[in-house]
Amino acid sequence: MKRILLIAALAVVSVAPATARNNNKTEASLAKLAPSDRFQQVCDIALMEKLRHEKRAYRPDSVIAYALDDPSISGDTLHGDGGAFRSHGVWYQYSFTCAATPDRMRVLSLEYTVGEAVPRNEWDAHGLSIH
């Protein structure tokens, strides 16, 4: 299941630039996913965009909401303390709360905190080495 989500995330993120044509492709790709899977994907995409616009020099190329621990869903809110994103070849832990529309197609709010770098010797245990 996680492997399928990652493949879907990479497909969606690869078409995420903000042109209207690509937004339509992104929405079409997202619409094919189950709502719970879509929820994680829209939150991952939103986090990637926010990180790219931060003052810090993050350049995320992969975001995995469930990398270190599974997130929980309560209504239209997804919360997790075990997400990870890769920037410049280093994986960083992050915690987040993401609220989305009921159809899980759009993020309404996203709060996150970037933690420490995930130690290299822990990457294999969390499947991060294959990404």
From TrEMBL:
InterPro entries hit by this protein: DUF930 (IPR009273)
Pfam families with a match to the protein in the record: DUF930
Domain of life (superkingdom): Bacteria
Signal sequence annotation: 1-20
Keywords annotated in UniProt: Signal
Protein name as it appears in the record: DUF930 domain-containing protein
Source organism: Labrys monachus
Taxonomic lineage of the native organism: Bacteria, Pseudomonadati, Pseudomonadota, Alphaproteobacteria, Hyphomicrobiales
